[in-house]
Amino acid sequence: MPRLKPKASDSSAVTATFRLKGGLFPLTLLEISRFDAVDLEQQLRDKAAAAPGFFKQTPVVLSFDDFIGELSTLPLADILAICRSQGLLPVALRSGVESLTQQARALNLAIMPATRVKPAPAPLAETQTEPDEQAETGSAEASAPEPAPSASMQLELSPSSHVEINRNPSKIITTPIRSGQQVYAPGGDLIIMAAVSAGAEVLADGNIHVYGALRGRALAGVKGDLSARIFCQSLEAELVSIAGTFKVDEDLRNEHWKTAVQIGRDEQSLCITPLV
Amino acid sequence: MGKTTTSAAISSGIAMRGHKTAVIDFDIGLRNLDIIMNCERRVVYDFVNVINGEAKLRQALIKDKRAENLYILPASQTRDKDALTIDGVERVLKELADDGFEYIICDSPAGIEHGAFMAMYFADMAIVVANPEVSSVRDSDRILGILQSKSRRAEQGERVEECLLLTRYNPERVEKGEMLGVKDVEEILATKLLGVIPESETVLKASNQGIPVIHDTESPAGQAYSDAVARILGEEVEHRFMSVEQKGLFQRLFRRSA
Fold first, then answer.
1. What is the mean pLDDT of the segment spanning A157-185?
2. Cα–Cα distance, A53 to A49 (Å, whole number)
3. Of B20, B75, B98, which is closest to residue A2 (Cα–Cα)?
4. Domain range holding A217?
5. Which residues of chain A make contact with B82, given a CB cutoff of 8 A?
6. Can you say how many angstroms the Cα of residue A130 is from the centroid of all Cα atoms in its chain?
7. Bigger pLDDT: B5 or A149?
8. Chain A contacts of B189, Cβ < 8 Å?
9. What average pLDDT does this structure show over A215-244?
10. Mutating which of A10, A197, A214, A258 best tests the B interface, going by the most B Cβ atoms within 10 A?
11. pLDDT tens per residue, range A73-125
Protein backbone atom coordinates (compact mmCIF):
# COMPACT_ATOMS: atom_id res chain seq x y z
CA MET A 1 0.00 0.00 0.00
CA PRO A 2 1.58 3.36 -0.97
CA ARG A 3 2.37 5.50 2.03
CA LEU A 4 1.11 9.04 2.10
CA LYS A 5 3.58 11.19 0.32
CA PRO A 6 3.79 14.86 1.19
CA LYS A 7 2.39 16.68 -1.76
CA ALA A 8 1.62 20.20 -2.72
CA SER A 9 -2.04 19.53 -2.18
CA ASP A 10 -1.38 18.46 1.39
CA SER A 11 -1.78 21.90 2.82
CA SER A 12 -5.41 22.13 1.79
CA ALA A 13 -6.22 19.09 3.83
CA VAL A 14 -4.92 20.68 7.03
CA THR A 15 -7.08 23.23 8.76
CA ALA A 16 -5.68 26.61 7.85
CA THR A 17 -4.19 28.67 10.65
CA PHE A 18 -4.77 31.96 8.89
CA ARG A 19 -6.18 33.54 5.80
CA LEU A 20 -5.12 36.61 3.93
CA LYS A 21 -7.68 39.27 3.30
CA GLY A 22 -7.41 42.65 1.65
CA GLY A 23 -8.37 45.66 3.71
CA LEU A 24 -8.44 49.39 3.19
CA PHE A 25 -7.55 51.41 6.24
CA PRO A 26 -7.35 55.15 6.59
CA LEU A 27 -3.85 56.17 7.64
CA THR A 28 -2.61 59.56 8.65
CA LEU A 29 0.28 60.96 6.69
CA LEU A 30 2.88 62.82 8.71
CA GLU A 31 4.51 65.12 6.22
CA ILE A 32 7.73 66.46 7.56
CA SER A 33 8.93 69.53 5.80
CA ARG A 34 11.86 70.51 8.02
CA PHE A 35 13.84 68.63 10.61
CA ASP A 36 14.93 70.00 13.92
CA ALA A 37 14.67 67.56 16.78
CA VAL A 38 13.69 70.12 19.42
CA ASP A 39 11.16 71.93 17.23
CA LEU A 40 9.58 68.71 16.04
CA GLU A 41 9.15 67.36 19.53
CA GLN A 42 7.78 70.67 20.83
CA GLN A 43 5.29 71.05 17.96
CA LEU A 44 4.13 67.48 18.27
CA ARG A 45 3.65 67.95 22.00
CA ASP A 46 1.54 71.06 21.32
CA LYS A 47 -0.59 69.13 18.86
CA ALA A 48 -0.94 66.27 21.32
CA ALA A 49 -2.10 68.70 23.97
CA ALA A 50 -4.70 70.11 21.61
CA ALA A 51 -6.01 66.68 20.49
CA PRO A 52 -4.97 64.11 23.09
CA GLY A 53 -7.45 61.54 21.74
CA PHE A 54 -5.64 61.43 18.44
CA PHE A 55 -2.17 60.77 19.85
CA LYS A 56 -2.86 57.35 21.30
CA GLN A 57 -0.92 54.70 19.45
CA THR A 58 -2.04 56.25 16.20
CA PRO A 59 -0.39 54.68 13.17
CA VAL A 60 1.10 57.20 10.79
CA VAL A 61 2.97 57.07 7.52
CA LEU A 62 6.02 59.27 7.31
CA SER A 63 6.36 61.32 4.18
CA PHE A 64 9.12 63.60 3.09
CA ASP A 65 7.67 64.75 -0.21
CA ASP A 66 7.64 68.39 0.86
CA PHE A 67 10.94 68.26 2.67
CA ILE A 68 13.17 71.26 2.29
CA GLY A 69 16.82 70.47 2.74
CA GLU A 70 19.08 67.47 2.47
CA LEU A 71 17.22 64.18 2.80
CA SER A 72 20.15 61.77 2.57
CA THR A 73 21.53 62.67 5.99
CA LEU A 74 18.18 62.67 7.78
CA PRO A 75 18.33 60.56 10.98
CA LEU A 76 15.14 58.51 10.60
CA ALA A 77 15.70 56.72 13.91
CA ASP A 78 15.58 60.05 15.81
CA ILE A 79 12.34 61.08 14.10
CA LEU A 80 10.84 57.73 14.97
CA ALA A 81 11.82 58.08 18.62
CA ILE A 82 10.29 61.57 18.81
CA CYS A 83 7.04 60.39 17.20
CA ARG A 84 6.77 57.46 19.56
CA SER A 85 7.42 59.60 22.59
CA GLN A 86 4.36 61.64 21.60
CA GLY A 87 2.05 58.68 21.05
CA LEU A 88 2.37 58.29 17.28
CA LEU A 89 3.32 54.95 15.79
CA PRO A 90 5.08 55.36 12.47
CA VAL A 91 4.34 52.18 10.54
CA ALA A 92 5.63 53.02 7.11
CA LEU A 93 7.74 55.36 5.12
CA ARG A 94 6.64 56.88 1.88
CA SER A 95 9.65 57.93 -0.06
CA GLY A 96 11.69 57.01 -3.06
CA VAL A 97 14.95 58.26 -1.60
CA GLU A 98 17.39 55.40 -1.30
CA SER A 99 19.14 56.49 1.91
CA LEU A 100 15.78 56.80 3.67
CA THR A 101 14.39 53.49 2.46
CA GLN A 102 17.59 51.81 3.60
CA GLN A 103 17.19 53.26 7.07
CA ALA A 104 13.50 52.30 7.06
CA ARG A 105 14.41 48.72 6.29
CA ALA A 106 16.85 48.65 9.19
CA LEU A 107 14.14 50.09 11.46
CA ASN A 108 11.49 47.58 10.35
CA LEU A 109 9.29 50.21 8.74
CA ALA A 110 7.11 49.30 5.80
CA ILE A 111 8.04 51.12 2.61
CA MET A 112 5.35 52.64 0.43
CA PRO A 113 6.12 53.75 -3.10
CA ALA A 114 6.64 57.49 -3.44
CA THR A 115 3.81 59.62 -4.71
CA ARG A 116 3.52 59.59 -8.41
CA VAL A 117 6.18 61.67 -10.05
CA LYS A 118 4.28 64.36 -11.88
CA PRO A 119 5.93 65.22 -15.14
CA ALA A 120 4.45 68.61 -15.82
CA PRO A 121 3.85 68.25 -19.56
CA ALA A 122 2.42 65.25 -21.40
CA PRO A 123 -1.07 64.72 -19.92
CA LEU A 124 -1.06 61.08 -20.96
CA ALA A 125 2.03 60.21 -19.03
CA GLU A 126 0.09 59.92 -15.82
CA THR A 127 -1.76 56.85 -16.88
CA GLN A 128 1.21 55.27 -18.53
CA THR A 129 3.49 55.29 -15.52
CA GLU A 130 1.71 52.67 -13.53
CA PRO A 131 3.89 51.42 -10.72
CA ASP A 132 0.94 51.38 -8.34
CA GLU A 133 -1.57 49.97 -10.76
CA GLN A 134 -2.35 47.22 -8.27
CA ALA A 135 -3.31 49.62 -5.54
CA GLU A 136 -5.49 51.54 -7.94
CA THR A 137 -7.34 48.48 -9.09
CA GLY A 138 -8.04 47.57 -5.52
CA SER A 139 -9.44 50.92 -4.58
CA ALA A 140 -11.49 51.26 -7.73
CA GLU A 141 -12.99 47.84 -7.27
CA ALA A 142 -13.68 48.35 -3.65
CA SER A 143 -15.28 51.73 -4.02
CA ALA A 144 -17.22 51.10 -7.19
CA PRO A 145 -20.13 49.20 -5.69
CA GLU A 146 -20.42 51.51 -2.72
CA PRO A 147 -23.51 53.62 -2.53
CA ALA A 148 -22.89 57.14 -3.74
CA PRO A 149 -19.34 57.45 -5.01
CA SER A 150 -17.28 59.39 -2.51
CA ALA A 151 -16.18 62.92 -3.19
CA SER A 152 -12.56 62.01 -3.64
CA MET A 153 -13.45 59.35 -6.14
CA GLN A 154 -15.58 61.73 -8.12
CA LEU A 155 -12.69 64.14 -8.20
CA GLU A 156 -10.40 61.47 -9.44
CA LEU A 157 -12.83 60.35 -12.06
CA SER A 158 -14.10 63.62 -13.42
CA PRO A 159 -11.07 64.64 -15.42
CA SER A 160 -10.66 61.16 -16.80
CA SER A 161 -13.42 61.06 -19.37
CA HIS A 162 -10.71 60.31 -21.87
CA VAL A 163 -8.59 58.12 -19.67
CA GLU A 164 -6.30 55.95 -21.66
CA ILE A 165 -5.84 52.53 -20.14
CA ASN A 166 -3.37 50.09 -21.55
CA ARG A 167 -5.70 47.93 -23.61
CA ASN A 168 -5.39 44.24 -23.12
CA PRO A 169 -7.07 41.79 -25.42
CA SER A 170 -10.66 41.02 -24.52
CA LYS A 171 -11.35 38.18 -22.17
CA ILE A 172 -13.82 35.67 -23.53
CA ILE A 173 -15.63 33.25 -21.23
CA THR A 174 -17.79 30.52 -22.69
CA THR A 175 -19.11 28.89 -19.52
CA PRO A 176 -21.74 30.27 -17.16
CA ILE A 177 -20.48 32.49 -14.36
CA ARG A 178 -21.91 30.87 -11.23
CA SER A 179 -23.01 32.34 -7.96
CA GLY A 180 -19.98 33.23 -5.86
CA GLN A 181 -17.60 33.53 -8.79
CA GLN A 182 -15.86 36.72 -9.80
CA VAL A 183 -14.34 37.43 -13.18
CA TYR A 184 -12.29 40.50 -13.95
CA ALA A 185 -10.93 41.60 -17.32
CA PRO A 186 -8.09 44.01 -16.57
CA GLY A 187 -7.45 46.59 -19.24
CA GLY A 188 -10.02 45.31 -21.70
CA ASP A 189 -13.46 44.04 -22.50
CA LEU A 190 -15.13 41.07 -20.91
CA ILE A 191 -17.24 38.89 -23.17
CA ILE A 192 -19.35 36.15 -21.64
CA MET A 193 -21.06 33.69 -23.96
CA ALA A 194 -23.39 32.40 -21.24
CA ALA A 195 -25.44 33.60 -18.32
CA VAL A 196 -24.11 35.43 -15.27
CA SER A 197 -25.87 33.94 -12.25
CA ALA A 198 -27.31 35.81 -9.33
CA GLY A 199 -24.56 36.20 -6.77
CA ALA A 200 -21.79 36.31 -9.38
CA GLU A 201 -19.75 39.39 -10.19
CA VAL A 202 -18.17 40.40 -13.49
CA LEU A 203 -15.81 43.34 -13.79
CA ALA A 204 -13.92 44.92 -16.65
CA ASP A 205 -11.86 48.01 -17.29
CA GLY A 206 -13.63 48.21 -20.64
CA ASN A 207 -17.04 47.03 -21.78
CA ILE A 208 -18.94 43.98 -20.61
CA HIS A 209 -20.91 41.85 -23.06
CA VAL A 210 -23.16 39.11 -21.75
CA TYR A 211 -24.68 36.84 -24.39
CA GLY A 212 -27.13 35.41 -21.94
CA ALA A 213 -29.06 36.61 -18.94
CA LEU A 214 -27.27 39.02 -16.64
CA ARG A 215 -28.53 38.13 -13.17
CA GLY A 216 -25.50 39.01 -11.05
CA ARG A 217 -23.48 42.18 -10.73
CA ALA A 218 -21.71 43.80 -13.66
CA LEU A 219 -19.19 46.59 -13.23
CA ALA A 220 -17.73 48.10 -16.39
CA GLY A 221 -15.06 50.77 -16.56
CA VAL A 222 -13.86 50.03 -13.06
CA LYS A 223 -10.79 52.18 -13.58
CA GLY A 224 -12.88 55.16 -14.49
CA ASP A 225 -13.53 54.79 -18.20
CA LEU A 226 -16.78 56.74 -18.58
CA SER A 227 -17.31 55.48 -22.12
CA ALA A 228 -17.54 51.86 -21.02
CA ARG A 229 -20.83 50.08 -21.63
CA ILE A 230 -22.63 46.96 -20.55
CA PHE A 231 -24.53 44.87 -23.08
CA CYS A 232 -26.74 41.97 -22.16
CA GLN A 233 -29.43 39.78 -23.67
CA SER A 234 -31.66 39.90 -20.66
CA LEU A 235 -31.33 42.50 -17.94
CA GLU A 236 -32.04 40.83 -14.59
CA ALA A 237 -29.03 42.21 -12.77
CA GLU A 238 -28.53 42.78 -9.07
CA LEU A 239 -26.35 45.75 -9.85
CA VAL A 240 -24.87 47.45 -12.87
CA SER A 241 -22.13 50.04 -12.61
CA ILE A 242 -20.14 52.12 -15.04
CA ALA A 243 -17.09 53.94 -13.70
CA GLY A 244 -18.51 53.96 -10.21
CA THR A 245 -22.03 55.11 -11.04
CA PHE A 246 -24.44 52.31 -10.38
CA LYS A 247 -28.01 51.14 -10.27
CA VAL A 248 -29.33 48.29 -8.17
CA ASP A 249 -32.05 45.92 -9.21
CA GLU A 250 -34.86 47.92 -7.62
CA ASP A 251 -34.03 50.76 -9.97
CA LEU A 252 -33.68 48.41 -12.90
CA ARG A 253 -37.02 46.65 -12.59
CA ASN A 254 -38.76 48.95 -15.02
CA GLU A 255 -39.76 48.56 -18.63
CA HIS A 256 -36.36 47.18 -19.62
CA TRP A 257 -36.39 44.31 -17.12
CA LYS A 258 -35.71 40.97 -18.80
CA THR A 259 -35.07 42.56 -22.18
CA ALA A 260 -31.94 42.97 -24.26
CA VAL A 261 -30.33 46.30 -23.43
CA GLN A 262 -27.19 48.32 -23.47
CA ILE A 263 -26.22 50.46 -20.53
CA GLY A 264 -24.11 53.54 -20.97
CA ARG A 265 -23.27 56.55 -18.86
CA ASP A 266 -24.22 60.11 -19.62
CA GLU A 267 -23.18 62.90 -17.27
CA GLN A 268 -23.94 61.58 -13.84
CA SER A 269 -26.41 58.79 -14.45
CA LEU A 270 -26.72 55.51 -16.27
CA CYS A 271 -28.95 55.32 -19.29
CA ILE A 272 -30.48 52.06 -20.41
CA THR A 273 -31.53 51.65 -23.99
CA PRO A 274 -33.02 48.59 -25.66
CA LEU A 275 -30.93 46.73 -28.18
CA VAL A 276 -32.79 46.60 -31.43
CA MET B 1 -32.76 17.89 -0.31
CA GLY B 2 -32.29 14.27 -1.31
CA LYS B 3 -28.58 13.74 -1.86
CA THR B 4 -28.32 10.54 0.15
CA THR B 5 -31.63 9.16 -1.14
CA THR B 6 -30.36 9.87 -4.64
CA SER B 7 -26.95 8.29 -4.00
CA ALA B 8 -28.65 5.16 -2.68
CA ALA B 9 -31.10 4.97 -5.57
CA ILE B 10 -28.61 5.67 -8.33
CA SER B 11 -25.90 3.37 -7.01
CA SER B 12 -28.49 0.59 -6.63
CA GLY B 13 -29.81 1.27 -10.10
CA ILE B 14 -26.39 1.12 -11.73
CA ALA B 15 -25.51 -2.06 -9.81
CA MET B 16 -28.81 -3.67 -10.81
CA ARG B 17 -27.81 -3.15 -14.42
CA GLY B 18 -24.77 -5.31 -13.83
CA HIS B 19 -22.01 -2.80 -13.15
CA LYS B 20 -19.77 -3.24 -10.12
CA THR B 21 -20.54 -0.18 -8.06
CA ALA B 22 -19.38 1.35 -4.80
CA VAL B 23 -21.13 4.07 -2.90
CA ILE B 24 -19.13 6.10 -0.35
CA ASP B 25 -20.68 8.19 2.40
CA PHE B 26 -18.69 11.42 2.77
CA ASP B 27 -20.95 12.80 5.46
CA ILE B 28 -18.55 11.94 8.28
CA GLY B 29 -20.15 12.33 11.68
CA LEU B 30 -23.70 12.31 10.36
CA ARG B 31 -23.76 9.04 8.52
CA ASN B 32 -27.13 8.05 7.15
CA LEU B 33 -26.40 6.32 3.89
CA ASP B 34 -26.08 3.03 5.77
CA ILE B 35 -29.51 3.56 7.29
CA ILE B 36 -31.13 4.26 3.95
CA MET B 37 -29.35 1.17 2.59
CA ASN B 38 -30.44 -0.77 5.68
CA CYS B 39 -26.96 -1.92 6.65
CA GLU B 40 -26.21 0.17 9.71
CA ARG B 41 -25.99 -2.93 11.89
CA ARG B 42 -23.39 -4.45 9.64
CA VAL B 43 -20.96 -1.53 9.92
CA VAL B 44 -17.71 -2.68 11.54
CA TYR B 45 -15.05 -0.55 9.89
CA ASP B 46 -15.67 2.70 8.08
CA PHE B 47 -14.21 5.10 5.52
CA VAL B 48 -12.03 6.93 8.07
CA ASN B 49 -10.60 3.63 9.34
CA VAL B 50 -9.55 2.81 5.79
CA ILE B 51 -8.04 6.26 5.23
CA ASN B 52 -6.06 5.97 8.47
CA GLY B 53 -4.87 2.49 7.55
CA GLU B 54 -6.68 0.92 10.52
CA ALA B 55 -8.66 -1.41 8.31
CA LYS B 56 -8.36 -2.85 4.84
CA LEU B 57 -10.76 -1.60 2.21
CA ARG B 58 -12.20 -5.11 1.84
CA GLN B 59 -12.99 -5.22 5.53
CA ALA B 60 -14.88 -1.95 5.43
CA LEU B 61 -16.90 -2.51 2.27
CA ILE B 62 -20.38 -3.81 2.97
CA LYS B 63 -22.05 -5.90 0.33
CA ASP B 64 -25.60 -4.83 -0.37
CA LYS B 65 -28.22 -7.49 0.16
CA ARG B 66 -30.52 -6.41 -2.66
CA ALA B 67 -28.24 -5.45 -5.51
CA GLU B 68 -25.57 -7.99 -6.23
CA ASN B 69 -22.85 -5.71 -7.54
CA LEU B 70 -23.23 -2.99 -4.95
CA TYR B 71 -20.85 -2.25 -2.08
CA ILE B 72 -21.23 0.43 0.56
CA LEU B 73 -18.36 2.25 2.29
CA PRO B 74 -20.00 3.81 5.34
CA ALA B 75 -18.99 7.04 7.05
CA SER B 76 -17.64 7.19 10.55
CA GLN B 77 -20.03 8.38 13.18
CA THR B 78 -17.44 9.20 15.76
CA ARG B 79 -15.11 11.39 13.74
CA ASP B 80 -15.51 14.69 11.96
CA LYS B 81 -15.00 15.76 8.39
CA ASP B 82 -11.41 16.84 8.94
CA ALA B 83 -10.48 13.17 9.15
CA LEU B 84 -10.67 13.12 5.35
CA THR B 85 -7.51 14.00 3.47
CA ILE B 86 -7.01 14.44 -0.24
CA ASP B 87 -4.29 11.77 -0.30
CA GLY B 88 -6.39 9.36 1.72
CA VAL B 89 -9.46 9.80 -0.45
CA GLU B 90 -7.38 9.46 -3.60
CA ARG B 91 -5.83 6.25 -2.31
CA VAL B 92 -9.22 4.71 -1.49
CA LEU B 93 -10.68 5.70 -4.85
CA LYS B 94 -7.67 4.30 -6.65
CA GLU B 95 -7.87 1.05 -4.73
CA LEU B 96 -11.56 0.73 -5.61
CA ALA B 97 -10.81 1.36 -9.27
CA ASP B 98 -7.99 -1.22 -9.21
CA ASP B 99 -10.40 -3.64 -7.63
CA GLY B 100 -12.59 -3.51 -10.71
CA PHE B 101 -15.25 -1.09 -9.57
CA GLU B 102 -16.78 0.58 -12.62
CA TYR B 103 -18.79 3.24 -10.87
CA ILE B 104 -17.97 4.97 -7.60
CA ILE B 105 -20.72 7.19 -6.20
CA CYS B 106 -19.61 9.74 -3.62
CA ASP B 107 -22.46 10.90 -1.41
CA SER B 108 -21.59 14.48 -0.52
CA PRO B 109 -22.60 16.20 2.71
CA ALA B 110 -24.55 19.43 2.55
CA GLY B 111 -22.80 22.75 2.35
CA ILE B 112 -19.59 23.84 0.66
CA GLU B 113 -17.14 22.84 3.33
CA HIS B 114 -14.38 20.29 3.61
CA GLY B 115 -16.55 17.16 3.32
CA ALA B 116 -18.30 18.35 0.19
CA PHE B 117 -14.99 19.46 -1.27
CA MET B 118 -13.48 16.01 -0.65
CA ALA B 119 -16.47 14.33 -2.27
CA MET B 120 -16.30 16.47 -5.39
CA TYR B 121 -12.55 16.86 -5.81
CA PHE B 122 -11.90 13.68 -7.78
CA ALA B 123 -15.23 13.62 -9.62
CA ASP B 124 -15.46 12.87 -13.34
CA MET B 125 -19.16 13.54 -13.29
CA ALA B 126 -21.29 15.40 -10.79
CA ILE B 127 -24.99 15.00 -10.16
CA VAL B 128 -26.28 18.15 -8.53
CA VAL B 129 -29.46 17.48 -6.60
CA ALA B 130 -31.76 20.45 -6.25
CA ASN B 131 -35.28 21.09 -5.06
CA PRO B 132 -37.47 23.36 -7.11
CA GLU B 133 -37.10 26.34 -4.83
CA VAL B 134 -35.07 29.50 -5.21
CA SER B 135 -32.60 29.00 -2.34
CA SER B 136 -31.82 25.44 -3.34
CA VAL B 137 -31.28 26.42 -6.95
CA ARG B 138 -29.00 29.25 -5.90
CA ASP B 139 -26.92 26.88 -3.76
CA SER B 140 -26.67 24.46 -6.67
CA ASP B 141 -25.41 27.27 -8.83
CA ARG B 142 -22.72 27.96 -6.28
CA ILE B 143 -21.74 24.30 -6.08
CA LEU B 144 -21.51 24.09 -9.88
CA GLY B 145 -19.17 27.07 -9.80
CA ILE B 146 -16.93 25.46 -7.19
CA LEU B 147 -17.02 22.18 -9.06
CA GLN B 148 -15.75 23.79 -12.24
CA SER B 149 -13.04 25.79 -10.49
CA LYS B 150 -11.75 23.77 -7.54
CA SER B 151 -11.96 20.12 -8.54
CA ARG B 152 -8.99 18.18 -9.83
CA ARG B 153 -10.35 18.19 -13.36
CA ALA B 154 -10.72 21.97 -13.17
CA GLU B 155 -7.14 22.29 -11.93
CA GLN B 156 -6.04 20.29 -14.95
CA GLY B 157 -8.04 22.57 -17.22
CA GLU B 158 -10.81 20.10 -17.93
CA ARG B 159 -14.48 20.21 -17.07
CA VAL B 160 -16.36 17.96 -14.73
CA GLU B 161 -19.38 16.59 -16.51
CA GLU B 162 -22.28 18.12 -14.65
CA CYS B 163 -25.95 17.31 -14.60
CA LEU B 164 -28.96 18.30 -12.63
CA LEU B 165 -31.43 16.13 -10.79
CA LEU B 166 -34.54 17.88 -9.58
CA THR B 167 -36.14 16.12 -6.63
CA ARG B 168 -39.41 16.63 -4.77
CA TYR B 169 -41.01 17.97 -7.89
CA ASN B 170 -44.71 18.61 -7.75
CA PRO B 171 -46.21 19.60 -11.11
CA GLU B 172 -49.49 20.70 -9.53
CA ARG B 173 -47.74 23.17 -7.25
CA VAL B 174 -45.67 24.38 -10.19
CA GLU B 175 -48.88 25.07 -12.07
CA LYS B 176 -50.20 27.02 -9.12
CA GLY B 177 -47.02 29.05 -9.09
CA GLU B 178 -45.89 27.77 -5.70
CA MET B 179 -42.82 25.99 -7.03
CA LEU B 180 -40.21 26.67 -9.68
CA GLY B 181 -40.81 24.80 -12.91
CA VAL B 182 -38.26 22.59 -14.65
CA LYS B 183 -37.85 25.20 -17.37
CA ASP B 184 -37.07 27.95 -14.85
CA VAL B 185 -34.51 25.84 -13.06
CA GLU B 186 -32.89 24.72 -16.30
CA GLU B 187 -32.73 28.30 -17.46
CA ILE B 188 -31.15 29.55 -14.24
CA LEU B 189 -28.59 26.77 -13.97
CA ALA B 190 -27.98 26.33 -17.69
CA THR B 191 -27.00 22.72 -17.27
CA LYS B 192 -28.10 19.32 -18.54
CA LEU B 193 -31.17 17.86 -16.88
CA LEU B 194 -30.60 14.30 -15.71
CA GLY B 195 -34.08 13.77 -14.39
CA VAL B 196 -37.03 14.98 -12.41
CA ILE B 197 -38.04 12.96 -9.36
CA PRO B 198 -41.66 13.61 -8.43
CA GLU B 199 -42.53 14.39 -4.84
CA SER B 200 -43.87 11.18 -3.42
CA GLU B 201 -44.64 9.53 -0.11
CA THR B 202 -42.96 6.38 -1.32
CA VAL B 203 -39.57 8.11 -1.10
CA LEU B 204 -39.97 8.73 2.62
CA LYS B 205 -41.44 5.32 3.23
CA ALA B 206 -38.64 3.63 1.34
CA SER B 207 -35.91 5.43 3.26
CA ASN B 208 -37.53 4.65 6.58
CA GLN B 209 -37.68 0.99 5.62
CA GLY B 210 -34.11 1.03 4.40
CA ILE B 211 -34.98 0.10 0.83
CA PRO B 212 -33.66 2.47 -1.83
CA VAL B 213 -36.70 3.81 -3.64
CA ILE B 214 -35.47 2.56 -7.00
CA HIS B 215 -36.46 -0.97 -5.92
CA ASP B 216 -40.06 0.22 -5.82
CA THR B 217 -40.70 -0.19 -9.52
CA GLU B 218 -44.37 0.70 -9.13
CA SER B 219 -43.83 4.19 -7.77
CA PRO B 220 -43.25 7.20 -10.03
CA ALA B 221 -40.19 8.18 -7.95
CA GLY B 222 -38.65 4.74 -8.42
CA GLN B 223 -39.36 4.85 -12.15
CA ALA B 224 -37.93 8.35 -12.40
CA TYR B 225 -34.70 7.19 -10.74
CA SER B 226 -34.54 4.23 -13.14
CA ASP B 227 -34.82 6.65 -16.04
CA ALA B 228 -32.03 8.78 -14.56
CA VAL B 229 -29.78 5.73 -14.22
CA ALA B 230 -30.46 4.81 -17.84
CA ARG B 231 -29.45 8.32 -18.88
CA ILE B 232 -26.23 8.11 -16.84
CA LEU B 233 -25.42 4.89 -18.69
CA GLY B 234 -25.90 6.71 -21.98
CA GLU B 235 -29.40 5.72 -22.99
CA GLU B 236 -31.89 8.15 -24.44
CA VAL B 237 -34.96 8.16 -22.25
CA GLU B 238 -37.72 10.68 -22.50
CA HIS B 239 -38.40 12.78 -19.41
CA ARG B 240 -41.51 11.88 -17.45
CA PHE B 241 -43.45 13.13 -14.44
CA MET B 242 -42.94 16.75 -15.38
CA SER B 243 -46.54 17.73 -15.99
CA VAL B 244 -49.80 17.33 -14.12
CA GLU B 245 -51.43 13.96 -14.67
CA GLN B 246 -54.28 14.06 -17.09
CA LYS B 247 -57.45 14.48 -15.18
CA GLY B 248 -59.93 13.82 -17.94
CA LEU B 249 -61.22 15.79 -20.82
CA PHE B 250 -63.88 17.67 -18.97
CA GLN B 251 -61.51 19.20 -16.46
CA ARG B 252 -59.02 20.16 -19.11
CA LEU B 253 -61.68 21.89 -21.17
CA PHE B 254 -62.88 23.64 -18.07
CA ARG B 255 -59.43 24.92 -17.25
CA ARG B 256 -58.85 26.10 -20.77
CA SER B 257 -61.97 28.19 -20.84
CA ALA B 258 -61.25 29.73 -17.46
1. 75
2. 9
3. B98
4. 165-274
5. 15
6. 13
7. B5
8. 176
9. 94
10. A197
11. 788 888 888 888 888 888 888 877 788 888 888 888 888 876 654 443 433 33
Q: Where are the alpha helices (DSSP H) in chain A?
A: 10-13, 37-50, 76-85, 98-106, 125-128, 133-143, 151-157, 249-252
A15 in any annotated domain: no
Paired with B63 in beta bridges are: B71
Phi, psi of B76 (to 5 degrees): -85, 140
Distance from CA of B208 to the nearest CA of A (A): 34
Among candidate residues A84, A114, A144, the one where a domain is terminated: A114
Distance from CA of B113 to the nearest CA of A (A): 11
* CB < 8 Å to B145, chain A: 177-181, 197, 200
Same domain, A179 and A256: yes
Q: B73: closest CA among B88, B62, B82?
A: B62
The band of A243, judged by pLDDT with boundaries at 50, 70 and 90, is: very high
**Most distant CA atoms of chain B, gap in Å:** 69
In a domain, A146, yes or no: no
Cβ-Cβ pairs closer than 8 A, A with B, add up to 60
Q: What is the CATH number of the domain that holds A234?
A: 2.160.20.70
> Which tens digit of pLDDT belongs to each residue from B154-203?
999 899 999 999 999 999 999 998 899 999 999 899 899 999 999 988 99
Residue A237 has pLDDT above 90, yes or no: yes
A191 and A260 in a single domain? The answer is yes
Residues paired with residue A28 on neighbouring β-strands, in sequence order: A60
CB–CB contact A178 B84 (8 Å): no
Q: Are residues A169 and A104 in the same domain?
A: no
**Partner-chain contact A5 B91, CB within 8 Å:** no
Q: How close B98 comes to chain A (CA, Å)?
A: 12
Which of B149, B159, B190 lies closest to A195 in CB terms? B190
Q: Are A112 and A93 in contact (CB under 8 A)?
A: yes
Three-state SS at B87: helix
pTM across the whole model: 0.62
- A178 to B88: CB separation less than 8 angstroms, yes or no: no
